[in-house]
Design goal:
The complex is a heterodimer of chains A (about 325) and B (about 300). Chain A has about 325 residues and is mainly alpha-helical. Chain A is about 75% helix and about 0% strand. The chains are: A mainly alpha (about 325), B mainly alpha (about 300).
Chain lengths: ~325, ~300
């Protein structure tokens, strides 16, 4: 252990450089991507990637498995859609309304959910989200089974026409980068450290004098707000908000993306989201049922590689050389 | 016409009966969940899928082999129970030493696979399952009309629930089970095959779900998605009851079913969510659940 400390910090330095280089390459790829791929597809990936990262903030860094994140994603999707379409809000304000609504919803759901731990937490969030689903089914402003259709994209800051696919893409990319940066900041802040300590040993965090429940609620609300950011943006991309976004299957999907990519890694959920969305796109044309494959991937992930793709990579020898292996 | 709280008594009793029937299924399903959780510490998300498999097993036995309802009541749970045993033996077993959440995620994936497969072959729409001859028709009780099959479901589910309770609380096998729940290592050191007990428990739980499924088949239609929405309600019920006690799961199941039925009479808009509201209230007042112990 001790002898390798020096070498590991040594490789860490080159590691950091390589990581920065990788990050730069990824960013350039994202800038070039819309000229190569179908922009709507890319925007969908970005929205779901942000959603999965927001979810991972809770599962990966606080150790809370929420089975109800569809409520925030889909809720924000409805809020944004409603204020943009019916009240004529500009897009940036519409998304902010979605974020605020999701955060409020997160505050209420979190207030109840953090009263239980572990497996019960998952069941409570699932039940509360289902309750919100029924609310959306019956409420006037969601238009029930039809959903909100034809939400206009409008003009960003009043002068950038978002109906232009490329404008829209770079807007979504901007939102995505801001969201990921926010998550990165949260995770690496003192607040994030306390969240991780709660994940590792809740009792000890309590005995150190932290009011664990407040931190959990804080993380829950932040995760909900960021999921809302993804949901609101998604509404503008597809120009509709439907019950699919609030249904429990959506909560399952985001868990899968995170699990597949790697719980508790920054980039894992992005990778997982890309994989799942691509898969859905390919299977949409065939008659093969997507849920069967999704379920199979779930089972294989849980049985064989619980660290996920990125997690396994980070733990591999190459990952260690790049300084990606976590210290535990 | 006799009125209760401004509602015609027929409507009142009718909804009460529907509530009681829903409650019967809630009770049987939450009972199975509680047993599985008690032993395996796994929340069985596939419980809804196993309920659906029970209904399908009954229907397919009838159409392919001409097996009637009464034999299906035996065979469907056995078949589904066997699939449960296979799943436990080859997959779930590997997850016991991990965080309990992995069990939930695995069975969630399993539920998706099972439901997706059935949907692929049988479509999303429901298929009818005829009520057995002897139980069709109804009796006029004077104040209301009671379809015999529904009466049978209520009675049968009570028998199943009480039977399971007796099995676990009063028999030698049940004593082993309870002991293994408390301290598996100690029980194993007494020479009892605990891994086998775990396997059988999961099989029993899956079989119970299937039994509920075949009993539900003549009332609701047999459809691939019949279990998926139900299971979420059952989860809420389990949170309300707390999974600590078998009897607690049974009582909560019936009580919330009836409450849901009554809500349909007085405030229909809320009938979908009343159980979730109750769950939220219980979380405020008694986070461990009505019959639960703080873990």
């Amino acid at each position: 252990m001790n002898t390798s400390t020096i070498t590991s910090t040594d490789t860490n330095n080159t590691g950091t450089r390589i990581q920065l280089a990788l990050l730069a390459v990824a960013f350039i790829a994202l800038l070039v991507a819309p000229f190569v791929f179908y922009p709507i597809f890319l925007m969908k990936v970005l929205c779901f990637a942000l959603f999965a990262c927001a979810f991972n903030l809770l599962l990966g860094y606080t150790g809370l498995l929420s089975f109800g994140h569809a409520a925030f994603f889909g809720g924000a999707s409805y809020f944004t859609g409603y204020v943009v379409k019916e009240l004529g809000f500009p897009p940036e304000l519409g998304i902010l309304v979605g974020v605020a609504g999701a955060a409020l919803l997160g505050l209420v759901m979190g207030f109840f959910a953090i009263r239980r731990q572990g497996i019960y937490f998952a069941m409570v969030t699932l039940a509360l989200a289902q309750m919100f689903y029924f609310f959306c089914l019956q409420a006037e402003f969601t238009h029930g089974e039809d959903g909100l259709q034809g939400v206009p994209r409008g003009h960003l800051f009043g002068f950038i026409d978002l109906n232009e696919p490329l404008n829209m893409y770079f807007f979504v990319l901007g939102v995505f980068v801001i969201g990921i940066f926010a998550i990165w900041r949260i995770v690496h802040s003192p607040f994030g450290m306390i969240l991780k300590s709660i994940r590792e040993n809740e009792d000890r965090a309590i005995s150190l004098g932290y009011s664990v429940n407040r931190y959990k609620l804080g993380a829950f609300v932040m995760s909900a707000a960021l999921a809302g950011l993804a949901g609101g943006t998604k509404t503008l991309v597809f120009q509709f908000a439907t019950l699919t976004d609030v249904a429990w299957q959506m909560s399952g999907e985001v868990i899968l993306m995170t699990l597949l990519g790697g719980i508790g890694t920054i980039f894992g959920p992005i990778f997982g989201a890309g994989f799942v969305v691509t898969l859905q796109n390919y299977l949409a044309a065939s008659s093969f049922p997507v849920t069967v494959l999704t379920g199979l991937i779930f089972m294989i992930c849980v049985l064989v590689f619980r660290r996920g793709i990125i997690g396994e990579f980070n733990a591999s020898r190459l990952g260690a050389r790049l300084g990606l292996r976590t210290k535990q | 016409m006799i009125m209760i709280f401004g509602i015609p008594i027929q409507a009142f009793l009718g909804q009460l009966l529907i509530g009681l029937i829903n409650g019967s299924f809630y009770a049987m399903l939450s009972l199975g969940l509680a047993i599985i959780f008690g032993m395996l510490r796994v929340i069985n998300f596939a419980h809804g899928a196993q309920y659906m498999m029970g209904a399908f097993a009954g229907m397919l036995l009838l159409t392919w082999l001409g097996v009637n309802y009464w034999f299906a009541l035996i065979f469907a749970p056995v078949i589904v129970g066997l699939t449960g045993i296979v799943v436990e033996r080859f997959a779930l077993r590997r997850l016991y030493n991990l965080d309990h959440l992995y069990g939930l995620l695995f069975t969630f994936g399993l539920a998706l696979v099972v439901e997706g497969t059935f949907r692929y072959f049988y479509g999303s729409s429901g298929q009818p399952y005829a009520t057995p001859e002897i139980l069709s028709g109804g009796v006029n009780l004077g104040f209301m009309y009671l379809p015999i099959y529904r009466g049978w479901v209520v009675v049968a589910s009570l028998i199943v629930c009480i039977g399971t309770w007796v099995l676990i609380e009063k028999t030698r096998l049940g004593a082993y089970l309870r002991a293994a729940t408390e301290n598996p290592i100690l029980v194993q050191s007494f020479g009892i095959n605990v891994p086998l007990l775990l396997t059988l428990t999961y099989g029993l739980g899956a079989g119970l779900a299937a039994l509920a499924g075949i009993m539900a088949a003549p009332i609701y239609q047999v459809s691939p998605l019949m279990g998926s929405n139900l299971i979420i309600v059952v989860f809420a019920i389990v949170v309300v009851g707390g999974m600590g006690s078998i009897l607690g799961a049974i009582i909560t199941g019936y009580a919330l079913g009836i409450l849901e039925g009554l809500t349909k009479v007085f405030y229909p808009e809320a009938s979908n969510i009343v159980i979730f509201v109750i769950m939220a209230l219980v979380l405020l007042v008694r986070p461990a659940g009505l019959f639960g112990r703080e873990a």
